[in-house]
Amino acid sequence: MKKIQMVDLQSQYKDIKEKVDVSVINIMENASFINGPSVKSFQKNLENYLNIKHVIPCANGTDALQIAMMGLSLKPGDEVITADFTFAATVEVISLLNLTPVLVDVDLETFNIDCDKIKKAITSKTKAIVPVHLFGQSANMEEIMKIADENNLFVIEDNAQAIGSEYEFSSGEKVKTGTIGNIGTTSFFPSKNLGCFGDGGALFTNDDDLAHAIRGIVNHGMYKRYHHDVVGVNSRLDSIQAAVLNVKIPYLDSYNKARQNAARAYTDALKNIEGLITPKAGKKCTQICENCDCHVFHQYTIRILNNKRDSLAKYLSDLNIPFGIYYPIPLHKQKAYLDSRYNENDFFNTNLLSEQVISLPMHSELELDQINFICEKINSFLK
Question: What is the residue extent of each domain of the chain?
Answer without folding.
Answer: 9-103+111-249, 251-382
